UniProtKB/TrEMBL annotation:
The keyword DNA damage does not apply. Residues 315-489 form the Glycosyltransferase 2-like domain. Coiled coil: none annotated. GO terms for molecular function: transferase activity. CDD domains: GT_2_like_c. InterPro entries: Glyco_trans_2-like, Nucleotide-diphossugar_trans. Keywords: Transferase. It comes from the Bacteria. This is Glycosyltransferase, GT2 family. The keyword Glycoprotein does not apply.
Amino acid sequence: MNYKTLEFKFKKANFLYAKYGLNGTVKKILNKKKTYETYNEWFLDRAVSVKELEKQCKMSLKMLNKPSIEVVILPGSDDATDYKAIVSLENQTYSEWKGIILEKESNKKRYNINYENVGDFEKMILDKQINISEQIQNIVRATDADIVLFTRLDQEIEPNYLYEMVDNYMNETFEVYYTDADCIKDGVHYAPDFKPDYSIDMLRSCNYIGETFAVSKSLLMNAEIFYDLKLDRVESNIYSLLLQACESARAIKHCPKVLVHSTEKNVDINAVLFEEKAVLERHLERIEQAADVTVNEKYKVLDLKYKLNEHPLVSILIPNKDQVETLARCIESIEKSTYDNYEVIIIENNSTDEKTFEYYEELKKKGIKVVVWQSIFNYSAINNFGASYAKGEYLVLLNNDIEITSPDWMERMLGNCMRAGVGIVGAHLYYPDKTVQHAGIVVGLGGVAQNLYPGLDGKVGGYNNRVFTQQNYSAITAAMCMVSRKIFDSVGGLEEKLQVAFNDVDFCLKVAKAGYWNVYDPNVTALHYESKSRGKEDTPEKKLRFAGEIAYMQEKWRKILIEGDPFYNINLSMARPDFALDGIEKAL
């Protein structure tokens, strides 16, 4: 272990100690070393203990200014006796709650319970701790509760759910709150759903937040949120409620603990998707964001193509050294684009083959610019230099070994880039053998940052079909990405201290730090003719340079490297790029 590695581990230990104290730090270190055969073992090992539950009960009684909770229980399965949510509420360590079952008038008879031979949870219905109503709008606006929790009748929540939620609310007030989840059958936990922190683009692609979530009363009072009983499916209405809440919310909190359990339902997923498509289209109308929405039935997500209200000039920057055939393939793929307002700038860097300069002359006749970078190879400096010649409002960074396979790629990237709050837009890249080369980057993976799913069969969706889900990532590859010239200049372009490695990651993190979303669009596709063995640091000079780039990133982005990438999940392994669970080390 070298000095830099030791130094980083020491800094991480100090950070953990400051955040969790001695006992918490020791527990985290020990848990990292544990291995499990199944997710069920993993879950049970981390489940809250009886001792901790007893402690929470005592602490909740001593709390001052305790937030009150209104639990809105949405319809569950067709089984009217599946009252898991109510049973779960009865067992909570935090007791300042009241509930209401939202149900259509025609279905209220399902809850006509007699006093004879009933359990405690049924008495809660009879004694009006839990009411049944059809008028959610009036309930929400009339309630005195500080937090409104939405769940389904057949959802099971952990006994510490309300306590954890209240603790988060009191320490870091939220407007929307959600947790991780899994499925349960015959007492066995499976299919864990480890979610990212709030991702606006992922939510528009699918309801990744789930069917149990909370909103603050302050948000409900200031936003027009309604439950549309005209929708056929409760899943669609939950999605509608989430979109409405997140339209106005400024603080959306994700708790990375598995606190919600679902049971398998016989649901027509495609039918749900088509109804959710209509829900999403209404959401886009409300926020005045025009987009074409289609249902991806294969991967069970919604695909969005944002419409352009302008036709700006796009400047495509391509660094190049020799490799005439490679560059020609890239140029030919650009010429097949359906968007026509663009310019191409080749940044020549120390070519020696005479054929290269002959090809440049051909390109110049087509109106393509060729500018000359006369110094050593420095990817960041070369692109910054090329950008100084660009006239476009939007810049595309493009490797010369890229062959674009989606003709509408510029419209799709522009549609995202021109949205308020969006920074960099990245593409879905394949190797020539049609396996995945890039589907997003996780910061911290493999030490500093790494592409997700390299080498995965290009037809496989990966964990929760995330390979084919438009979503936000902390970083995306600069092999093919788009950014507005304004944002590029505002963050100082690419960092020239990073000559080869991590310059795209650093660039994305700078843009994210400035308050913008970085977007991965799986429908912008290209082949990347990068050798899978490319990039090995196999000479002393390369190793020294690479070590310096690692040290730079570890120092500059210390906080995210220690706390974890918000668009990944702290429960997932940082040693594998395929959403393996930490402690099991195999893909979920």
